[in-house]
Amino acid sequence: MLLALVVTVVLYVAAGMPTPGNPLVLVAFVVAGAAVLSLLGAAWTVAISRAELAAAVTMPWFMLAGLGAGGFGPIIQLLPSWVGTVLNLLPTGGIVEGARFAYTGEGNVLLALLNLAVWTAIGLIVLRYRFRWEPRKS
C-alpha cells in the first residue's frame, strides 16, 4: 500500500501524471488487490515442494501478471490481441481496470470486482482443501 502511494506521488511529481479523479476507488483497489495477491501467494505454496524452488516456480507467474498489467510498457501491443485478453483475466487485470476507473472514470468497475472476487474464491478454495502447514524441523 505504501509502495503504491510512493509510486503515485513520484509519477505525479516527476512525470506530470494527473492525480486520480477518484482516489478512494484507487485506494480500495490497491488494498483489495494486495489482499487477493497475498491470498493467492499463500495458495500457490501448494505447488511448491521445497522452499529452494519458490523463486523459480513463482517468477514466471509474476512475469505474466506484470506483462498483463502493463508493467513492461507497451510490449503487450506487440503480441496477438488474444494474449492481452487472456492476461487481463489474471488478478492484476482487475486491479488495473479499477485503477483506470479511478484515474479516468472509464472502465468497468463491476468486471474488475468480479475478477478479484473470482480469484479470491479460487485462493480460498485452494487454501481450504490443499494447504498444509508443515513447521520447519530443527
Structure description:
- Helices cover 69% and strands 0% of the residues.
- The protein is an all-alpha fold.
- Helix 2 runs parallel beside helix 6 and helix 3 (54-69) crosses helix 4 (81-87).
- The protein starts with a helix and ends in an 8-residue tail after the last helix.
Secondary structure elements and pairings:
Layout: H1 2-15, H2 23-44, H3 54-69, H4 81-87, H5 91-104, H6 109-130
Quick structural gist:
With 138 residues, the chain is mainly α. The chain has helices spanning 2-15, 23-44, 54-69, 81-87, 91-104, 109-130.
Shape: globular
Work out the radius of gyration. Answer: 17 Å
The SSE string, one letter per element, is HHHHHH
- Structural class by sheet pairing and helices: mainly alpha
What is the strand tally? Answer: 0
Give helix % range. 55-70%
Give a short account of the largest sheet: none
β-sheet strand percentage: under 5%
Contiguous helical run count: 6
